[in-house]
Amino acid sequence: MDLVTRRKFLMASGVTGAAALAAGAGAMGLHALFAKAPEQPTFNDEWVKQGKLVIVTLYGGNDGLNTVIPYTDPAYRKARPDLAYAPEDVLRLDGEVGLNPVMGGLKQLWDSKQLAIVRGVGYPRPDRSHFRSMDIWQTAAPARPIQTGWIGRWLDGTKAPAETAVSFEPVLSPLLVGETRAGACIDMGGLRLPDGVTAAMLSAFSQAEPGEADLMARVAGTYADLIRVDNLVQETNRTVPASSTVPGDSLPGTGTGGADSLTSQFDLIARCVEAGVPTRVYSVSLGGFDTHAGERPGHELLLKQLDGAVTGFLGRMARSEAGKRVSVLVYSEFGRRVEANASDGTDHGTAGPVFLAGPAVTGGLYGDEPSLTDLDDGDLKVTVDFRDVFGTVLTSVLKADADRYLDGYRPTPLPLFSE
């Protein structure tokens, strides 16, 4: 094959879906392209016993005060009289806070001590920009912009193959991007090729060429990886049936976030775990949380889908030993302001709750409840650094040295997981 033609194809490919990373989706540079790696065995005893993590991103800034509700605090109702929930409607967790009324499944997880809620989570000197704040959460680097995510750096450190971390979102987020490794971005409908490009052509372009620069060879290697990972997922789709037991409204992601319903994304993860796909970290998302106006109906619909998808998934995972090793982390880029705006909504804020759920989780409330009267320019003050949560997940679920992957931050461990 002509080397110049091949190079031009690799630089200008329009492949989408599973090849989003190789095509440069999300304005990522060549450093983000994942390296070719050997196959991993599936369904061995070691893999079954390994912790597995599902990271759920709620794009738009979830209103934490109407998710984990301080129903006894008079400042809550004073700040948002038309948005506040009455104490009798809240699913009470203790004598001070409770869950939104539509989150009955998560309340059951709470009652079974499989739901941990970390309150007041955020980062120093908050930024109210969606883009910058999400970048900070996914890179775990609030002080300066960097080009790698905290999971991506873990992939680098473990020299992991592409299938170790998989995203079922439209493009690969910075979360899964490292310097030398990156996760795989898999389209829910399978690999889609541009007109005139066949799978055979793509396979040919992935072969090494004599005299080619190392960097271009890495780019070519990504095509072999994406074909392999896409085949792995599609084979799972064919051999492991979808479950009809995962509840939740079929609400498409709105705004930034997964194009398919969260339930559909979780269903595919469940099938991957059941089939022994050698993935340790999955990334899924739900958009639509930028609730500036008419918040309550739309917010309840989104929280209902989150509740049904997470609890249905964990119920299904409880049927297998590998599934019992799965933990779910739910976060959003920021919370909302304490006071409601004039449009029956809330504007961009700062701190908010983070959820962790699963059999390995030690259920309960963690972190101090932020004050609704001692505010920072109308916003909640952060009581838990988000890197303490991520560090605990790295240590407890992925069995990693968290200090290596948090850009110089030394996390304070939280007792979120049983040993």
Automatic annotation (TrEMBL):
InterPro entries, A to Z: DUF1501, TAT_signal
Record has Ribonucleoprotein as a keyword: no
Residues spanning the signal sequence: 1-27
Entry keyword set: Signal
Source organism, top-level taxon: Bacteria
Alphabetized Pfam families for the sequence: DUF1501 (PF07394)
Alphabetized PROSITE patterns for the sequence: TAT (PS51318)
The protein's name: DUF1501 domain-containing protein
Organism: Actinoplanes subglobosus
